[in-house]
Amino acid sequence: MQVLRDRQLGVALGAAPFFWLLWLWFHAPAPDLLWPFVEPVRFLMPALIYPVLEEMTFRGLLQPALLQRPWGSVCHWRLSTANLVCTVLFAISHLVWHSGLQALAVIVPSLIFGYFRDRYGRIAPSVVLHVFYNSGFIWLFAGR
């Protein structure tokens, strides 16, 4: 399967632990790594359920609809206009529950998720990335 041999996808997956470690470096103390076992629902909602629902909405419904527009498939720096618009809306949607800085922080991951949605024409790679990114981040930083 092509997706399993995709070096770009491997880099996207590898980037997450790098940024988690960088974030840990600047935001010590060390996390309680066992907290998801104590509060599994508090972990699973943002780590698994929300990413799947967000990907179904933004990359499964909205991005393909925008790609149908004449301007939607126009690319800028290898990113479709549909992906760029979806990313802006994705970041804005995070303002409901998060600070402005946290909403801005989802821009780069969103562009990555959208890139792989465009690359493969389906949402499975972006769902896997989103779940992976959220799981690590929530596991390391939400249990404090």
From TrEMBL:
Transmembrane regions listed in the UniProt entry: 9-28, 99-116, 123-142
Signal peptide: none
Pfam families hit by this protein: Rce1-like
Protein name in the entry: CAAX prenyl protease 2/Lysostaphin resistance protein A-like domain-containing protein
Keywords from the UniProt entry: Membrane, Transmembrane, Transmembrane helix
InterPro entries: Rce1/LyrA-like_dom
Domain of life: Bacteria
CAAX prenyl protease 2/Lysostaphin resistance protein A-like domain mapped to chain residues: 40-135
